[in-house]
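User: Can you help me understand a structure? I only have the sequence.
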Amino acid sequence: MIPGSDQFADTLFQQGQIRLAELTVFNWGSFDGLHSATIDPCGTLITGDNGAGKSTFIDGLMALLLPAGKATFNVAAAQGDRADRSLLSYMRGSFGSSHDGSGTRVKSKREKAVVTGLSALYRAEDGSEITLAALFWTTQASNALSDVNRIYVVAKRNLPLKQMLDAFGEGNARSLKQWLRDDPRITCCDDHFADYQELYRNLLHMDNRNAPALLSRALGLKKIDDLTKLIRELVLEPSSVKEDVKKVVDEFADLVAIHDRLSDARAQVEHLQRLPGLAADIQAAKDALDALQLEKDHLRIYFAEVQAGLRAARIKQLRMDLEKLELQLEDVQRQVADTAELVERRHEEYLQQGGNQVEALKKDVAHAADKLKELVRKSSSYQQDVRSLGLADTLQQDAFLVNQRAVQVSLQDIEQNKEASQNRFGEISGRWSQSKQDLTATVEQIKEIEARPTPTSIRRFSACATSWSKRWIFPPSR
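Assistant: Let's start by predicting it. Here is the structure, written out as tokens:
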């Protein structure tokens, strides 16, 4: 560290910059396995002998910033316009060639299937971090760039390369992508370098699209032949004003013809602009008619399906109700059985507690009640009888005895009156029989007299006798 470097960095770099903080490679060139280098924010000097891997390590950053097919690696050591290294040579760790008598073969540390990983950590002055990472792998011993699989990743945090390699495992790209997408701060761009470059340029505030290429050329300043050309191509924004003006001039001659065609087209549009609407209306009406016809054709089926659905719902409801009723019936039957059993137990307990005597008492009470009813009836009849006889109807023993003696006296009088009446009736019956006989004889005499020719006085006597006989036989009521 150079003394006073902090003050030098403060004057050299603007405030708020984002600086490279760490660079990590895995199976990259001569670096087998995982290697990481920390970059000091005030500046880091990389020194070493030729072939120590200085350019190889820095080219790892170039592989993250430029597409694989356009990246120019080891610019400082390249001869002429030829670059002696490529993405695939770095992945395989090519370091020389050998002659086997029939040809030359490139020697590599990793000749078969290989996985290479690169990551660069950027840190801002506010402490926020951005990680650019990429995995390159091939499953066969091929030297074609098209056989190399790639995954580019941008993370808004420190994403260690080892974690990506652990998630990748033995080549499980799907598991790695799922692991990356589970973190909202990580964006996996798959093998779409354009999306990846657009994202990291926005995050690192690289407004000039040529910034990554300019960085690549700056790593090999001794290879710059024409500084003016370099600045025009990589520093200044490209200008296409001349080409645009020429294009406008070439197309100006066609404006009149274009105007005429536009006028004709406008007139045609005015005449035909209603046709699409009419066609749409016709098509809509046709579709509506087809729909209505289809509905009409299937109306019976629809109603049948609706009715079937309703019946099915009703059947389902009835079955549910039936199940409930069956459960209730089972519950009631169980309760009836329990009640019958309880009644039987209570009856046994009732008998044990003297129920037989109670039953006998009940019968006695019922018999007494019947007797009471009979007594009430007879008492009522007794009261009616004594009232008709003009006696007291009080239901007391003394009154009953008085009434009994009065009735006995009345019965004796009745017997005596009955006997006298019978005697009198006999006498009257005898006299009535004799009178009847006399009447019969008199009537016969009258009839004989009437049969004779007699004077008026005899006829008058006969009428009087007839009238008298009728009054005697049927006396007038009194």
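Now, to help you interpret it: The chain has a mean pLDDT of 79. The first helix runs from residue 5 to 12. Let me know which part you'd like to focus on.
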